[in-house]
Design a protein that fits this description.
It catalyses: ATP + protein L-histidine = ADP + protein N-phospho-L-histidine. It is found in: Cell inner membrane. GO terms for molecular function: ATP binding; phosphorelay sensor kinase activity. Keywords: ATP-binding, Cell inner membrane, Cell membrane, Kinase, Membrane, Nucleotide-binding, Phosphoprotein, Transferase, Transmembrane, Transmembrane helix, Two-component regulatory system. This protein has 596 residues and is α+β, with helices and mostly antiparallel strands. Among the domains are: 144 residues, Beta-Lactamase, CATH 3.30.450; 108 residues, Beta-Lactamase (2-Layer Sandwich); 162 residues, Heat Shock Protein 90 (2-Layer Sandwich), CATH 3.30.565.10. Helices cover 52% and strands 21% of the residues. It has a 6-stranded antiparallel sheet with strand order 7-6-13-12-11-10. It is rod-shaped, with a radius of gyration of 73 Å. Bound molecules: adenosine-5'-diphosphate (ADP). Adenosine-5'-diphosphate binds next to helix 10 and helix 11.
């Protein structure tokens, strides 16, 4: 059993391994493709965020340039005593900038919208650049405003050409960030020193990369205590894409695709961290679906194979069952053939035994009747002798008439003797088994003739009123005689030694296509009517005084067989008025007038 299961278990394990391999491969490629899509989307998101930032800053940059051209501001920078504070405040309010400053060439602040603590901007990089006639910009955590700021410094040119001073627009970075705080993806902008200065996640602001910390500290632009170490992450390369596995951050995805975009306009680099969880989910789904399809397919395949295997096994069983059954049937057939042969032989033996028995029965009946027959023949013989002697005497006396009468009687008696002898010869003859049309009345009369002397000697009255004309039936003459003789002999046997009147009535009657023959007696009747046709059933015994006959119990069973062979029937039962009645029914012969 286990050995039969082993290959299947190995096949299932191998199949599962293949399914795992295929679904992992599908999942991997799905993951890479999802990452690629994520990268494309992330790049456009990052570009969008960068554009928004630079666009927002661009407004302030233009404001600085425009303000530098303002005549009042230019006059102020040229040393005019005019009050520009009100103008600067209006501008600040309208543009949403944090502050607008007018700075003299010396770096001294001439006016500001906020009016708070004047500051010397000398040697500041943005101011230096403005004095050089270019647009300077810078970002810093301003002590004066207490927050992150982005500065644009535009040079104020004198009508003669040289730079008289600068207009500095201070941008509130928090206000710019407020527009996209919390948006996806996570974005932060780092300066060239590696400090993340702007982000849509406030937790990521002021992170500094380890490698650049020393430089940054040296520059002393930010107080070291507000700086934070950069995100702890492990970078992985996936087909040119950088994946960061980030530790211990609540606001940053655990595994993120890192994208960066340089922004030379503001000298920063935009960086985005995109959550790869959806890509992983897609990949897992694809792998799961592939595995499910493969497993479903495998299960169907497995079921089909199992079904085929079961069918094949059932087939083998069936074939072997059919084989063994066929062998059994062949054996039975062979036995049957033997039995048929044996039966045919037995049947032949039985037929022979039957015909021997029939013959024996006839001879036994003749034996029983021998005394009666010899009496029957002796009587006319004696009469013939007397008639012959008397005829001789009458002839001597010349009485020819009486002698002639005697001779006539002699002829009649001789005819009668001849008839008796013919009947006996016919009865003792062995008849072949065919069937002919037989006159049932003639059969009865022949039997009466044979039994006449016995009936007479035993005082049995034979009642026989034949119908007019012949009554033809299908059968064998001698065999029918035997049956009728047997019925008559049994009736006379039954009445042996009986005191009351001994009578046997024989009747024949046509009933449609059948002819009934009845033999009824005034004897004691049947002891066991159900058994009378059983072979060897006999109640006959020789009485101690030598009266009666010893029975073989075959007469009726032979008669039954003979009548059945003619297609007829024989029954026997007791009469209500006493005595037994036997009825033999035979097919009527189809005589010409019937046919007509
Ligand atoms: P057997 O004459 O040798 O006994 P049968 O087969 O001819 O054998 O008869 C079987 C038995 O049927 C008889 O022994 C007898 O008991 C019974 N039997 C047959 N005919 C009569 C009858 N007419 N009256 C009473 N009994 C009969």
């Amino acid at each position: 059993m286990l050995n039969a299961l082993q290959p299947r278990i190995i096949a299932i394990i191998a199949f599962l391994a293949v399914v795992a391999g295929v679904s992992m491969t599908v999942g991997w490629f799905g993951y890479l493709s999802a990452l690629d899509q994520l990268r494309q989307r992330g790049q456009s998101d990052l570009a969008l965020a960068s554009d928004r930032l630079t666009g927002e800053f661009g407004r302030y940059r233009e404001l600085a340039v425009l303000m530098a051209d303002h005549p009042v501001v230019a006059a102020k920078a040229a040393g005019d005593d005019a009050d520009v504070t009100a103008l600067l405040r209006r501008i600040t309010d309208k543009t949403g900038s944090l502050d607008v400053l007018v700075v003299a060439r010396s770096g001294i602040e001439l006016a500001s919208a906020s009016g708070s603590g004047a500051q010397n901007h000398q040697r500041q990089p943005y101011f230096e650049r403005a004095l050089d006639g270019a647009l300077g910009h810078y970002h810093l955590l301003h002590d004066r405003y207490g927050q992150r700021t982005f500065l644009f410094a535009a040079p104020i040119f004198s009508p003669e050409g040289p730079v008289n001073g600068a207009v500095i627009v201070v941008v509130d970075v928090d206000a710019v960030e407020a527009l996209w705080r919390g948006d996806r993806p996570t974005v932060f902008f780092t300066d060239e020193l590696g400090v993340s200065f702007i982000s849509n996640r406030s937790e990521l602001v002021f992170m500094v990369r380890e490698s650049s910390r020393a430089i940054h500290t040296a520059s002393a632009e930010f107080a070291p205590d507000i700086l934070k170490p950069f995100l702890e992450y492990e970078a992985l390369d996936r087909r040119g894409m950088q994946l960061w596995s980030v530790q211990g951050q609540r606001y940053v995805p655990r595994t993120a695709l890192h994208l960066s975009l340089p922004l030379p306009v503001i000298q920063m680099t935009g960086e985005a961290l995109l959550d790869v969880a959806p890509a992983k989910l897609i990949a897992r789904l694809q792998a799961g679906v592939t595995a499910a399809i493969c497993l479903a397919f495998g299960a169907l395949l497995f079921l089909a194979t199992e079904r085929r295997r079961t069918l094949a096994q059932a087939n083998v069983k069936l074939e072997s069952a059919v084989h063994s059954r066929t062998a059994e049937l062949s054996d039975i057939n062979e036995e049957l053939r033997h039995e048929v042969v044996e039966r045919i032989a037995t049947e032949a033996q039985l037929k022979k035994a039957q015909s021997d028995l029939v013959q024996a029965g006839k001879l036994s009946a003749l034996g029983q009747m021998s005394a009666g027959i010899s009496h029957e023949l002796n009587q006319p013989l004696m009469a013939i002798r007397s008639y012959a002697e008397n005829a001789e005497t009458f002839l001597e006396r010349g009485n020819v008439d009486v002698a002639g009468q005697n001779l006539g009687r002699i002829t009649e008696l001789a005819r009668r003797m001849g008839r008796i002898i013919r009947n006996l010869r016919a009865f003792s003859k062995q008849e072949n088994h065919g069937m002919t049309d037989v006159d049932l009345c003639a059969v009865v009369e022949a039997v009466i003739e044979i039994s006449h002397s016995r009936a007479q000697s035993e005082g049995v009255g034979l009642i026989w009123s034949p119908p007019e004309g012949a009554l033809m039936v299908r059968g064998g003459e001698v065999r029918l005689q035997q049956v009728v003789l047997n019925l008559l002999s049994n009736a006379m046997d039954a009445m042996t030694g009986q005191d009351n009147a001994k009578e046997v009535e024989i009747t024949v009657e046509r009933n449609g296509t059948r002819v009934d023959l009845g033999v009824c007696d005034s004897g004691p009747g049947l002891v066991e009517p159900d058994r009378i046709f059983d072979p060897f059933y006999s109640t006959k015994q020789l009485t101690p005084d030598g009266q009666g006959h010893d029975g073989m119990g075959l007469g009726l069973s032979i008669s039954y067989g003979l009548v059945q062979s003619f297609g007829g029937d024989i029954t026997g039962h007791n009469r209500e008025t006493g005595g037994a009645v036997f009825t033999m029914t035979l097919d009527a012969a189809v005589v010409e007038e019937d046919a007509a």
